Amino acid sequence: MKFFVSSIALLAITCFVSPCLSDDMIPGWALSSIDDVKKAADGGNADAQTYMGQCCFHGRRVVKDLSVAVFWFRKAAEQGNAKAQRNLGSCYSKGQGVEKDLAEAVKWIRKAAEQGDAAAQCDLGICYFLGEGVTENAAEAVKWYRKAAGQEYAAGQFNLGSCYTDGKGVEKDLAEAAKWYRKAAEQGVARAQYNLGMFHEYGYGVAQNHAEAVKWYRMAAEQGNARAENSLGGCYANGQGVPRDLVAAYKWLSLAATQGDQTARQGLAELERKMTPDQIAEAQRLPESLSLISPVEEPPIQNESALELTLETSKSVVESSEEISFAICFHNNSTDNLLLNGGALLGNGTQIWSSLEAELKSESGQRIPMTLGLGGPMSGRVYFLGVPLRAGSGYKLPVRMYDHLFGSGARLKPGKYEIRCVYRGRQSPYRDSTQMPACWEGKVQSNLLRIKVLRPNLLFRLWDFLR
């Protein structure tokens, strides 16, 4: 039997994206004062009403109030705003701000889907697949997944691939499944990348190709997918599609094991018997920096996260000639305490791994990793040392020009840039010395912050001269 390489039954890879409230803040209103947005919403502007609903739902720019969010979503939905209709349906499906009512949820989601909203089409497909609010009907689910997939909606592509994998609502066709997984994988969906890697490893619907399997496993693993981390570790251990490297295998398996993957834990125990003490010591150091998530974001797959991450400046758009400064704001929306931990090895030998990543992106598409706030350059990562976040509390990390000056040595030329941050945590169920439960695991992305550099910064000119 192959050395702890994941051999998962095809049925086990079916994983559907749950209906989720859309958080696509409407750009036109994002740059307006909240008072102006409120006036427009009161005046009947459906986009402004939808934006107000999103702000109230997420607690952005206003006090978080789900019932008020539902009020605004309903106002816009009754005017035919597809995004508001989908959001109102999502609220009904989860009982957020309104009593849970799956039939009512389907009613509003269908209205948005029939207007061509790809996210709503995918959600309606899920309702039919699971039989939530409607009679279970896999063929009808496939119909709506296909509509969403045809609009390049990644979740619809993934779900359609899963139906072809298992022959649910459509005749089983692994080649067709691979086709749709690839489309979703190319948009950065980690689970699709993992599934595509497994198809290449075992020759499901595609020619068997271990190097190609490693490629897709790595993409998913770098986004924190535990199954992909385990499979990639197995590939390194076996020299399958990549040169044999027990140290690299140990690192990837450790990441998977930290997330509770039992196969990875068993693989680690077996691997340690084949490694020298020096190899084990090297492997137990913090894993190498992983790349920032794909430019195309993975579709929402969880309920609203306990952790909220936003970027804050004095203006929505900063025109900077001398410096760039902003704050990264963490807020714990749950009723439990939360830890912002960094890479650390606890006394019981358990590794906690979490990180904050950030980047600048220029109009030309250039991506510049940033070093944030603490410590020396870390390729766009900052490691927290047990920062406690009490229930309902917040924490701000100020970032100044100096903090990202040495992130990559890249000189900021005049032009427009965007900033985005991603926080990843894999912390449950451990405690640190503060005895606060590390109650959150997953990842959360910040909003985008737009800046404009008017001319090269003086510090950069000096840095260029010194180099």
Structure description:
By secondary structure, the chain is an alpha+beta fold. Among the domains are: 27-182, Serine Threonine Protein Phosphatase 5, Tetratricopeptide repeat (Alpha Horseshoe); 307-466, Immunoglobulin-like (Sandwich), CATH 2.60.40. Helices cover 42% and strands 15% of the residues. It has helices at 27-30, 34-42, 46-58, 66-77, 82-94, 102-114, 118-130, 138-150, 154-166, 174-185, 190-202, 210-221, 226-238, 246-258, 262-272, 277-283, 401-405, 458-466, and strands at 307-312, 317-320, 326-332, 338-340, 344-345, 351-362, 367-369, 381-382, 387-389, 394-399, 415-426, 441-445, 449-453. The strands form three sheets. Strands 2, 5, 6, 7, 8, 11, 12 and 13 form an eight-stranded mixed sheet that branches. A hairpin with a 4-residue loop joins β6 and β7. α2 crosses α3 and α13 packs parallel to α15 (262-272). The protein is globular and about 70 Å long. Residues 1-15, 286-304, 342-353, 373-385, 402-410, 427-439 and 463-467 have low confidence and may be disordered.
CATH superfamily of the domain at 307-466: Immunoglobulins
CATH class type of the domain at 307-466: Mainly Beta
User: What general outline do the C-alpha atoms trace?
Assistant: globular
E-strand count = 13
The secondary-structure class comes to alpha+beta
What's the mean pLDDT score?
75
Figure out the total of helices.
18
Q: Radius of gyration from the CA trace? A: 23 Å
